Here is the input.
Amino acid sequence: MKAGIYCRLSEEDRDKQSADDDSCSIQNQKSMLVQYALEQGWEIYRIYSDDDYAGADRNRPEFNRLIADARQRKLDIVLCKTQSRFTRELELVEKYIHGLFPLWGIRFVSIVDHADTADRGNKKSRQINGLVNEWYLEDMSENIRSVLTNRRKNGFHIGSFALYGYKKDPGQKGHLLIDEEAAQVVREIFTLFSQGYGKTAIARLLNSRNIPSPSEYKRLHGFQYQKPQSRTSALWKYSAVSHILANEIYIGNMVQGRYGSVSYKTKQNRPRPKEQWYVVEGTHEPIIDQELWTKVQTLISQRSRPFATGEMGLFARKARCSSCGCILRSNKQSDGRRYLRCPSRYISKDACEGAFISVSTLEQAVTAQLKQLSAQYLNREKIEKEIVIKRDHTTEQKRLEKDIAACLKKAAEYEEGIQNLYLDKVKSLISENQFIEFSGKFSREKERLEKHIKNAQRQLAAIQKNIQEEDQKRLPMEQYINPHKLDRETVEVLIDHITVGKRIPHTRKVPVEIHWNF
Here is the structure.
């Protein structure tokens, strides 16, 4: 029997000599588990060790390697110190320990809390352990959340990084100090805007002087600031300038809680309403004085104006530059027509080749391709054939559903019959041999029905999947077939994104690639 030993530590051990060393706790886990495996006569296939990972983290590298090896049947036993070392999530307990591991022929053993899938009577205790660990995760999340909320309300900075222009105070946790090098750039941004410079013009000016953007500034100063790299990641952009000009932190007010976590089970965040933000005034030294701040906010409100129609642009956030990947911005030319252009082209000369196309030209390209797809996939013969196939699928679906319901009812009757036989045996109405004979027949018939039900359910699931896939392919096209003019709803439903390239020299052609949602 080959055993895969899994160890995990969720907190950083202070006894580590270097970042590559395992903590003492991990070493203790390994020693305990290796000794136990040898006493049982098991061969150690591999030791999987995740240090500094939480039990609810599904991205643990060694955990995922263990699961991959288990899926390929490279081991027979998964051995842990406790069930919580493997996972603290009840969902994963059911998925792996009670679901996939038995299917793969793998035994799970944890030696401290005596969890062992070879012992069938042990299942409830494993489920209780999983539930307790789940409660632990939720309680810990609530405790951490309440502590962080309290610190936010009291004006303490709790982020991993200080906002551009500031640095963390090494002598006082949660307090910010001015980072003079970056603060000079912040002051210049506010001053330039107050003098009439636009946000794009300010970004272009900073890039021409090779001043690193906020994210690049962090990386250059040794911060482990992880952000997707791209050709324009080191450049100032309109959005970065806009964010700085609107942030109250530069006048000494701590603003936090703009985003909140969706759940303690995920690291995903979502925006919170402004009234739920935590704003505490006068928590640190301001970079911008109140007079300049007020002037800039007045100018921003004067320059902000919605679309004339009050509606979102036809291709808003759908069109991207094929060169740098930036979302194209809309602007109105002197001829009254709207154009889409790559903003990177205007923040630095070498940032991008620059995509440029009129909205009307892009609309014509999308409409033409949509009509081609409609003609290709929605001819009458094909539609009629799909209707016949769907009708057959629906008929088979109803037959299987009826068959499953009848078998479930019959299996329940056999289960009830076995129970009644047992009562008759207790009352001495039938002999022990009669009970064994009759209950055996009932059990075999019940087992046969259960196998039939599982097979029918698999067939039903496959048919339902086919119907769903056909509907997903057909319905969007049927609903928006052969449009004469695009609208925002059609674009939103049918198009994932569009890439636009630079105009081909000596022609009027602009490369356009449409990525559909079907």
Summary: Confidence is low (pLDDT under 50) at residues 12-17, 305-311. The CA atoms of residues 435 and 479 lie 63 Å apart. The two ends are 48 Å apart (CA to CA). The chain is about 50% helix and 15% strand.
